[in-house]
């Protein structure tokens, strides 16, 4: 992720989730808020209901890989938070479905 940094501040997570625009998919939802920076900042929120740590980390790796693949086509200057839907089953998910979800959310948001 060349022009992207991660969100590490809890207050920034709250700000984006309260003031950002929500876009939903089948397994993920995202909150997107414009910023005044020349790069995007992304955050991942995946709860413990997904499963053990190795499952959560696998989902995080899939999300980051999908974002990295699209990074050259995405507009810059946004905070983006990906949240795993609590009702989504981990067992029914693979990389292609997450990639499809992220493409759909970004096209709805007008970032691609």
How would you characterize the overall build of this protein?
The chain has 112 residues and is α/β, with parallel strands linked by helices. The protein has one domain (4-109): Ribosomal Protein S5, domain 2. The chain is built from 3 helices and 5 strands, in the order βαβββαβα. The protein is globular and about 40 Å long. The mean pLDDT is 91.
Short note summarizing the structure:
The protein is an alpha/beta fold. The chain contains 3 helices and 5 strands.
List keywords for this structure.
112 residues, Ribosomal Protein S5, domain 2, 5-stranded mixed sheet, 24% strand
CATH architecture call = 2-Layer Sandwich
Q: Give the helix tally.
A: 3
Radius of gyration: 13 Å
Question: How many separate structural domains?
Answer: 1
Q: Strand arrangement, largest sheet?
A: 1-4-5-3-2
The CATH topology assignment is Ribosomal Protein S5, domain 2
List the helices and strands and how they pair.
Layout: E1 4-6, H1 10-19, E2 21-24, E3 28-34, E4 40-45, H2 53-70, E5 78-84, H3 95-109
Parallel strand pairs: 1-4, 4-5
Antiparallel strand pairs: 2-3, 3-5
């Amino acid at each position: 992720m060349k022009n992207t940094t991660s969100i590490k501040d809890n207050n920034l997570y709250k700000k984006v989730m309260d003031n950002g625009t929500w876009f939903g998919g089948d397994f993920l939802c995202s909150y997107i808020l414009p910023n005044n920076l020349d790069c995007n900042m992304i955050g991942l929120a995946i709860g413990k209901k997904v499963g053990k740590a190795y499952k959560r980390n696998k989902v995080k790796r899939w999300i980051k890989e999908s974002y990295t693949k699209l990074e050259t086509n995405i507009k810059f200057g946004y905070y983006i938070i990906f949240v795993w839907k609590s009702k989504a089953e981990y067992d029914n998910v693979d990389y292609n479905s997450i990639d499809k979800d992220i493409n759909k959310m970004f096209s709805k948001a007008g970032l691609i």
